[in-house]
Amino acid sequence: MKINTRTIVAIGIGSAVFYVLNRFVSIPSGIPNTSINTAYAFLAFMSTVFGPLAGALIGFIGHTLTDATMYGSVWWSWVVVSAFVGCAVGLCQNKVNVEDGDFNSKDLLFFNLYQIAANIIGWGVLAPVLDILIYKEPADKVFLQGLTAGAANLITVAILGSVFLTLYAKTRTSAGSLSKE
Amino acid sequence: MATSTKILSYIPRETPVHRLCGATKLIVFLVWTIVCMLSYNTFVLLGALVFGIIVFRLAKIKVSEVRFVLITILVFLTLNTIAIYIFSPEEGVKIYGTRHELFRFSSRYTVTQEQLFYLFNVMLKYFTVVPIALLFIVTTDPSEFASSLNRIGVPYKISYAVAITLRYLADVQSDYVEISQAQQARGVDLSRKAPLKKRISGLIGIAVPLIFSSLDHIDLVSNAMDLRGFGKNNKRTWYSERPFSRADYIVIAVTIIAGAMALYVTFRNGSRFYNPFLPK
């Protein structure tokens, strides 16, 4: 398997950061059970920088770890969704230029198109369907749950994810920035 | 701001459960979760729960050591069960196909035997995994865990990523505490007293330094690993790997047989549910 070392380490440390953000750096939005959760903005950011495999695994490992240590049990249906969202956002890696310093509103637009699609499909469709298949919960309940979680994540990623990417792009040296004197 | 640092982690003890290989416990955990995920059969779930509690006693883990997790999960389960009832008071009737009404709060909110039995099964299903999942977490040495993943077929590079996560968890957490205290000293307020807009900018003030210091960590660690030739070969050995003992083989065999039997019982009559309301 050809994965470079940097991606491996990014998955490892990224999952640890996802866990810490998920546990500590989020604020309740006022609507029950939904919060402005920086972890998902971070996941979208890492997916964009390190690609779909890293995104999927950070979502998977980070979410499993949070569930296991907080509840002593793992909700696989939602873990799968986190992995899916990480992977789907990561597909925009080649369309969005963050590494060479030439990051503009077109990149930001692409990033947001991908993350909106990923969140709607992931939380609005995949999560409820898996909940019904695995846990046989009532359809109305899981769809409402999925849609609120999806909407909260979508808005969080749109605001915080865009901020993270913009700040990160500023730290990169832009291609051809050297000039001859 | 939530700074509770109570998290579930490895508790070393000398018991038969601790002595099993990490890979064995991982296999047991996976079989257990799969069975509990697929089955809605009351007897299978009850059996799994009772057996789980017995193994839990065997590992000499005190309830007081995992109490905070148990409380969180019970609160969650209660809220979830109430939510199911609010959204679908007749779900049980739909599933079991009969209707034995006990009484009703209003024309929509009836209480039927079927619904109560369904809610009981939902709670049971969620709770059955808990003893084994808790045990798996508190009796498995994190440094052995990566080698276990590799042994059951996860590529070693991915196993190594998990090892890095477990290794850096404490570091990232202490970075977080430092950053958050520094920001609070500078007047960042994430509590309910601050208006929402201020709290969001406070979140950015904590998340951004944490993310960027982690990106530095990633470069540093991956350079160090590259320099030591990580990933050059297709296989690697693990320092903390232990050979399977006889007990491991027995536990794995028993788990797989029991799991297969549980699935057979569950799917025997074409429905995942055990239906006590069927006319004999």
Quick synopsis:
Chain A is mainly α and 181 residues long.
Based on CA inertia axes, which overall geometry of chain A fits? Answer: globular
Number of strands of chain A: 2
- How many helices of chain A? The count is 6
Q: Would you list the SSEs of chain B in sequence order as H and E?
A: HHHHHEEHHHHH
What structural class is derived from the secondary structure elements of chain B?
Answer: mainly alpha
Tell me the span between the first and last alpha carbons of chain A.
45 Å
Question: What would your notes on this structure say?
Answer:
The complex is a heterodimer of chains A (181) and B (280). Chain A has a two-stranded antiparallel ribbon with strand order 1-2. Chain A has one domain (5-91, 102-171): Arp2/3 complex 21 kDa subunit ARPC3 (Orthogonal Bundle). Chain A is built from 6 helices and 2 strands, in the order H-E-E-H-H-H-H-H. Chain A has helices at residues 5-24, 38-50, 52-71, 76-90, 105-135, 139-171; strands at 26-28, 35-37. The radius of gyration of chain A is 17 Å and the shape is globular. In chain A, helix 2 (38-50) packs across helix 4. Chain B has 280 residues and is mainly α. Chain B folds into 2 domains: 16-141 and 242-267, no CATH class; 150-227, no CATH class. In chain B, 66% of the residues lie in helices and 2% in strands. In chain B, strand 1 (101-104) and strand 2 form a beta hairpin. In chain B, helix 7 (142-151) runs antiparallel to helix 8. The interface between A and B is large, with 57 and 71 residues.
